Amino acid sequence: MDIRKQAQKAEQFRKLHHGPRMLLLPNAWDVASARILEECGHPAIATSSAAVAFTLGYPDGQRISRGEMLEVAARIARAVDIPVTADLEAGYGTTVKDMAETVKAAIEAGAIGMNLEDVTGDDESSLVDMPLQVEKIRAIRETAKSLGVPFVLNARTDIYLLPVGPEASRFERTVERLRAYRDAGADCLFAPGLYDRETIAKLVKAVEAPINILANPACPPLAELEEIGVARVSAGSGIMRAAMGLVRRIGKEMLESRSCEMMFAGTIPHAELNRMMMRHANEARA
Questions:
Q1: DSSP, res 237
Q2: What Å distances lie between residue 82 and 35, 78, 111, 251, 283, CA to CA?
Q3: Helix (H, G, I), strand (E, B) or coil at 190
């Protein structure tokens, strides 16, 4: 990808975090899902690390390699015209040097931003020490700047999601971490697992930076999240899991009801999907 065009897309994506409307960010897991979401009219898309991992036969939680994850991100970035930010888990490494290598590879893949988690495993013992996480964020910011891309970094803490530590102190520890990540250069701050309206509103005011909330049935309605100042709501692996739920329902219907009715309800026509793929195939040959 042309580095100047990539930089323009990164700046375009950054502006989407500052209104006037809340950014509704869907997560794709392959070229087909990305092209469909683009044609729906979304101004940007993210990848979902869990969805990509599931598609390639891995469990979630950084079991997939950086190379395999970025190969999918690169295919998606080449296939759409809108900005693509990549979910890169905890950065596929434990050191500041690893983060620099990850952001270089992400920019080479065509991504204009990334998610960075602050846990490296499945429990609270894997929570990265805050000073080290701050250094990782600074390294990502400096490396991207040296490459000429105003990379949009979404820094995530999993204190609520895992959860980590006593419930009574989670809000204060989340604020402490997210403020530190903001000061280190993160553009957006992500607190998955947080669903309470009042707590979300308090967090928006406390960190004074764009906040990303993960869509969940327990969340307030999107209109309420927008009203209290949330900058971005992302789908995570939700869209992919919804699609897989449909696969399961169709499979069961075929066996149990000897019917294919569900398979044809709402199906995108073959010709329409073929047209979506053909457009970029023709551009690649041009």
A1: T
A2: 10, 10, 11, 34, 15
A3: strand
Domain boundaries, the chain: 3-236
Neighbours of 216 (CB within 10 A): 14
Residue 167, classified by CB atoms within 10 Å of its CB into exposed (0-12), middle (13-18) or buried (19+), is exposed
Give yes or no for a cis peptide into 220 (omega within 30° of 0): no
Per-residue pLDDT of the chain (286 residues), as tens digits, is 689 999 999 999 999 999 899 999 999 999 999 999 999 999 999 999 999 999 999 999 999 999 999 999 999 999 999 999 999 999 999 999 999 999 999 999 999 999 999 999 888 889 999 999 999 999 999 999 999 999 999 999 999 999 999 999 999 999 999 999 999 999 999 999 999 999 999 999 999 999 999 999 999 999 999 999 999 999 999 999 999 999 999 999 999 999 999 999 999 999 999 999 987 666 554 4
Task: Give the whole-angstrom CA distance, residue 85 versus residue 251.
Answer: 33
The answer for residues whose C-beta is within 8 angstroms of residue 173's C-beta and 6 or more apart is 159, 164, 165
Question: At a CB cut-off of 8 Å and minimum separation 6, what does 202 contact?
Answer: 171
Q: DSSP string spanning 124-171?
A: GGGBPPHHHHHHHHHHHHHHHHHTT---EEEEE--TTTTT-S-GGGHH
- DSSP code at position 208: -
pTM: 0.95
Q: Which CATH architecture has domain 3-236?
A: Alpha-Beta Barrel (3.20)
| DSSP states along 238-283 | HHHHHHHHHHHHHHHHHHHT---HHHHTTPPPHHHHHHHHHHHHHH
Residue 130 structure tokens: 């805050």
Which strands sit side by side in the sheet containing 45-47, from one edge to the other? Answer: 23-25, 232-234, 211-214, 188-190, 152-156, 113-116, 84-87, 45-47, 27-28
